[in-house]
């Protein structure tokens, strides 16, 4: 990858696609091995451990002000975090067919629909993406918990090589430096961004039991590792995951079972990948990889939650 690359675009795409497929095959193998290991542990343990006791331990014990930003408000990043979260939530709530705003449907698989709008800055593709999905059996908080918490990220974000917390702002607000695996012939990438998980209490989403979001936004200041130093090209991103919990009519959070839960998801992202990857290659990769990512992530959360107490 570079301004003077002699690799034809179709060969560039084929090479990246092959690399991504190999990473996905490795992930599926790890999942199978992990499952087999868990099954072996269960059969060996017999009745020595109570499953209910184990699942109770897995409910995160977080303070009552988690998701309010209360503990992050004294940090110098807070004004930016609060402003961008509010802006992104407003945009996520807007429809895709309003005002002829250029959204194009590019994936339609059951409940999942994905739209993109073609945009370029200085010749670099930064197409905004908007996805809508509906998933049964989990809550908004559970979906956001697994998206936000770095302990689980390697399980579902397949191209990650390393995750570092460079600023522990608050339990619901972290600054990450993520390094991604190099996929030849593209250069290796990294991203530095804050991530904030928030409960939304503005009562705009009528009918929803609760609403949670995770917003990620690239940030750079003198305290954090600088961009484009060494082997990595810096990615710049803005992402919001908006999740709403809906319960079966007549049920509430005390009486509902997982069969009564529906999670409505809106995922919006704008990513500037940096570097010199050809526009046609980037768009072809996005079209293939984004649907796989959203199905993989939501399926992972459903699988993680099915045997655990419900977290609201």
Automatic annotation (TrEMBL):
Region (Disordered): 34-59
Highest taxon listed in the record's lineage: Eukaryota
START domain mapped to chain residues: 99-297
Protein name: START domain-containing protein
Main localization category: cytoplasm
Compartment(s): Cytoplasm
A Pfam family reported for this protein in Swiss-Prot or TrEMBL: START
Polar residues composition bias: residue spans: 35-53
Keyword set, alphabetical order: Coiled coil, Cytoplasm, Lipid transport, Transport
PROSITE patterns: START
GO biological process terms held by the UniProt record: ER to Golgi ceramide transport
GO cellular component: cytoplasm
InterPro entries membership: STARD11_START (IPR041952), START-like_dom_sf (IPR023393), START_lipid-bd_dom (IPR002913), START_lipid_transfer (IPR051213)
MF term (GO), any: lipid binding
């Amino acid at each position: 990858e570079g301004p003077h690359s002699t690799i034809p675009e179709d060969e560039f795409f084929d090479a990246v696609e092959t690399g991504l497929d190999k990473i996905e095959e490795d992930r599926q193998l790890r999942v199978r091995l992990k499952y087999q290991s868990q099954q072996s542990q269960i059969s060996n343990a017999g009745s020595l451990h109570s499953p209910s006791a184990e699942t109770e331990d897995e409910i995160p014990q977080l303070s009552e002000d988690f998701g309010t930003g209360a503990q992050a408000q004294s940090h110098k990043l807070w004004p930016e975090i609060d402003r961008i979260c509010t802006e992104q939530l407003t945009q996520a709530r807007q429809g895709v067919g309003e005002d002829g705003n250029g959204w194009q449907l590019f994936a339609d698989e059951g409940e999942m629909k994905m739209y993109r709008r073609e945009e370029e800055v200085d010749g670099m593709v930064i197409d905004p993406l908007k996805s809508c999905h509906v998933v049964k059996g989990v809550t908004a908080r559970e979906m956001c918990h697994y998206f936000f918490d770095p302990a689980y990220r390697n399980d579902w974000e397949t191209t990650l090589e390393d995750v570092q917390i460079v600023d522990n702002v608050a339990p619901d607000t972290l600054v990450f430096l993520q390094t991604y695996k190099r996929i030849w012939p593209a250069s290796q990438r990294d991203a530095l961004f804050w991530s904030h998980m928030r409960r939304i209490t503005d009562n705009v989403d009528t009918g929803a039991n609760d609403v949670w979001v995770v917003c990620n936004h690239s940030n750079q200041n003198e305290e954090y590792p600088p961009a484009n130093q060494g082997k990595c090209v810096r990615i710049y991103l803005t992402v919001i995951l908006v999740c709403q919990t809906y319960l079966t009519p007549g049920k509430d959070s005390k009486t509902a079972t997982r069969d009564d839960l529906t999670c409505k998801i809106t995922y919006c992202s704008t990513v500037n990948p940096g570097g010199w990857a050809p526009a046609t290659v980037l768009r072809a990769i996005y079209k293939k990889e984004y649907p796989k990512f959203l199905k993989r992530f939501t399926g992972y959360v459903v699988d993680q939650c099915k045997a655990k107490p419900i977290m609201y």
